[in-house]
């Protein structure tokens, strides 16, 4: 980014036959969006133009560019990514060509992110099975990006103004959850969460709640032993180090009694245990953030919603929050890097004091 503090935010189009294009158009329709970022949509000008006209957004304009060097900071920019046979919009349906477009847009945006041509990436929802192909053999965006950035571990971190929630296991079958609830795996996710809260969200002493795996958090071993054998001993290790990690909490009572409001973040054991209450509390404003990547990636916390595609009924709140969050996290990381790089170590401080005394 050259000469200013306005980040370039890439936005992959997602499945063109879902609500992704609609929430992008609505989120970027505000004239003030270019005051906080330079949006770059990765997709297809032809299909996006038809989509916006179907919605009645005829006056919403974007500038088609070849690459990020041609970006117009005062407009919405679009980079054409699709290479394949011509196809028409078929809103609300699963279409092979739409899956190809979704992957090609994601791939181009990801490469630009890796090369530093954009500062952050916001991904519109894809149809996971429809996007599968030679270059995409992953359960979702999170796993694909972890592979592209060669990250050993990442954290699916759902964030909103009210609640931040991560999961130990993500897109895996429920029968595989138990075998993945290990001390090593939970520790990796807790470490990622703690670091992200400090670096990405500027919380110096974060307080984290850890949910149990079993009903009633195992009921002292009666309903399962993972809590007393794996999770709680690990929590005690963190507590001995002075880290504010608490648990285990039964998921139902924890959310029903609003205990979550007492914590900066919550770590759930598996996907639906965390995402069900999160989406109930923050569906229109929730953001899916991938912690642990060297670059910033966010996404709205909803899917393609094929049943709503093209009807003009999709709420763009989550997409707008995803864009705002990408900008904020990017700036927080830059600020943290500057502070830590310019910080004087205790050893260096002692040397300065010693040198000053000797001169006297």
TrEMBL record:
Alphabetical list of InterPro entries matching this protein: PdxA_fam (IPR005255)
Pfam families (UniProt xref): PdxA (PF04166)
Alphabetized GO MF terms: metal ion binding; NAD binding; oxidoreductase activity
Keywords: Metal-binding, NAD, Oxidoreductase
Keyword match Transit peptide: no
Transmembrane segments: none
Organism of derivation: Arcticibacterium luteifluviistationis
Name by which UniProt lists this protein: 4-hydroxythreonine-4-phosphate dehydrogenase PdxA
